[in-house]
Amino acid sequence: MSLVKRTLVVLTVLVAPGGLFVNAKAEENSSPVYIDHQKVESSFKHTLPIPDLFAGQSGGGHYRVRASRHDTPTEVEIHTADTDIFYVTSGTATFVAGGNCADAKESSPGELRGKSIGGATTYQLQPGDMMIVPHGIPHQFQKITSAPAPFLYVEIKVR
Fold it and tell me: Is residue 10 part of a domain?
């Protein structure tokens, strides 16, 4: 990952909605976290459920960092407490967000899933793009274009 991409990812964590580190007081026993490229690359090859590369707390905010991958379209997702922040590193995808999901059902505590989304805005995601989806907003990866590269993105979940 280039220096510019790494910088953008770090800045996203620092200024994410909910202010993870904005005005956060240093917590006792806190220290920087280094995750080497081999662990990140390995994490992109995950199976569901998506493993966290790191989870932590800063001030009153909780966050999780993941290396995510999609090879096929997803169900509609609605997170009742988490804001998603995506930074695309490889591949392209058609992503829709907003509108409504009439058939949403709880899949786990705080998580809703559905088959269809109506009235959403469509985005064509490519490497270097960033997407921020506040909690409560339906969203879905509708089309994944994996050639010539798989669709990979760094995901930060903020609560």
Answer: yes
Q: Report the amino acid identity of residue 127.
A: P
Let me know if residue 37 belongs to a domain.
Answer: no
Confidence band (pLDDT; 50, 70, 90) for 149?
confident
Query: Where does the pLDDT of residue 43 fall: very low under 50, low under 70, confident under 90, or very high at 90 and above?
Result: confident
β-strand pairing of 61-70 with 111-114 = unpaired
pLDDT (0 to 100) of residue 23: 33
Contact 129, 88 (CB under 8 A): yes
pTM passes above 0.85: no
In a domain, residue 39? The reply is: no
Residues spanned by the domain of 92: 3-26+48-158
